[in-house]
Design brief:
The chain has three helices and two strands. The protein is mainly α. It has a two-stranded antiparallel ribbon. Strand 1 and strand 2 form a beta hairpin. InterPro entries: Asp/Glu-ADT_sf_sub_c, GatC. GO terms for molecular function: asparaginyl-tRNA synthase (glutamine-hydrolyzing) activity; ATP binding; glutaminyl-tRNA synthase (glutamine-hydrolyzing) activity; transferase activity.
Length: 95
């Protein structure tokens, strides 16, 4: 796939990036270079390769999975325009 100047102009427009007309040929070349690199990556055989979280092996930190209320109810409800009995109060919308 090759990116021409019109396609580069359209991509810049979609990305809401202002690109001067004389810079469009260089932008198209840059897009083509990126696409060429992606094509190279598709040629690599990754069958059986485990995904990594880092370039160095490390164990992720774990914590106990326990449900809490966050102990911040009063702090959160302080910002509510109307709170009753520990909950947000909202107007009735269904009759």
């Amino acid at each position: 796939m090759s990116i021409d100047i019109d396609t580069a102009r359209r991509v810049a427009s979609l990305a809401r990036i202002r690109v001067e007309e004389d810079a469009l040929p260089e932008l198209a070349q840059d897009f083509n270079a990126v696409l060429g690199f992606i094509e190279q990556l598709t040629e690599v055989d990754v069958e059986g390769v485990e995904p990594m979280t880092s370039v160095t092996p490390q164990r992720l930190k774990r914590r106990v999975d326990e449900v809490t209320d966050g102990n911040q109810q009063a702090k959160i409800l302080k910002n509510a325009p109307d709170a009753r009995e520990g909950f947000f109060a909202v107007p009735k919308v269904v009759e």
